[in-house]
Write a structure and sequence with these properties.
Number of helices: 15
Radius of gyration: 24 Å
Shape: globular
Helix content: 25-40%
Length: 404
Amino acid sequence: MQLPGVKMQISFIKDVATQRNPRSRFTFLNYLWTKGRLNQYSNLNTFKPSRIEYQDYLKWCAESFSNLIHYGQEVVEVTPSQQSSKSKSVDSFLVTCRDVKTGNATHYRTRHVVVAAGGRPNVPPALAKGYAAQGNIIHSSQFMTTIPRVLPDPTSNYRIAVVGGGQSGAEIFNDVQTAFPNARTSLIIRGSALRPLDGSPFVNEIFDPEQVTNMYRRDKPMREKSMDMDKSTDRGVVNLDLIEKIYENMYQQSLLAPPGSPPQHQILRYRSVTGLESGPSGAAIVRCENSTPLFEKCDEPRDERLEFDAVILATGYAYDSHLKMFKPLEHLLPQTNTKGGKKPVEWNVAEDYRVFFDSEKVDDSQAGIWLQGCNEKTHGLGDSLLSNLATRGGQIVQSTIGEI
């Protein structure tokens, strides 16, 4: 999210090129030099640029490929295109796209398909109905573009809830206090407190390229154990600087508030959100199971119905967009990947991110599909992150065309 003043969580050295080729013209340092800001940036004394600047850097990189990029296109499906006359196996694919403005379809025949679709907003099943029905219940991915419409008056005393105790939830909780200074805000979290991200040097080594290789080569139980041990680097955690800022703001609030008055900004701990529904005058009702009485001596109700003017769901992302677009290809997978009744089809990949197809059905010497950003179970927690983007991209290029 491009919130004011928010920085990247990784070093600029982990840009799109440096770890693969520091002399590439697509490094962040070359971007700064090209833009005439290299000396000024060095005076900032930081490895972590603002997200606004990093977004501009990525745009700058993309400009070099403007003749090859087609924006505003949604990939609808990928299907087998044709079979080799000799082996009768698939040797190319047909990619069907839809123009998001006109709805017109375009088809591309190709031998190589690389899917790096990113995540889609994840809304827990229990909240999906209320989310779809209420215009003032939004996912964090919509925050920057939608909140001005939902809450048009920055001076109003709105009631705002943020659900989720990770980085996005904390950032939004902090931002709305400034953007809506008269609002009452609540951060609803399942745990007892915001937990700090562990970004220490030794722990950060789990995102090194060689550690991704080590992760892939472990057996499944060991990979699961490793990811559980390392979840403090990425899952449901918040930068310590932001935690301290939120705590300081809430402390200052306690100093200035009249005695006995309810807090303007609060963190509602030990809450599990069980449902969302419409309330009076278009308000959003958040149903919570309050577990506080299990942990503290208090007389708070176990079941709560909290009323807000806007609810932001910072509930993360699901990295499964490929499942729908690859539906027509399922019969090409090894049989072990497609059995199991209601279990989802498994799109297993090699170390270089290439999908394992049945060798008798797909001619690997001619055609292939590569998945990027949805292989956490085999490649570790960094699979969907920017940390290994340069190395990961290089591996895929090497696997597809054999050169970088």
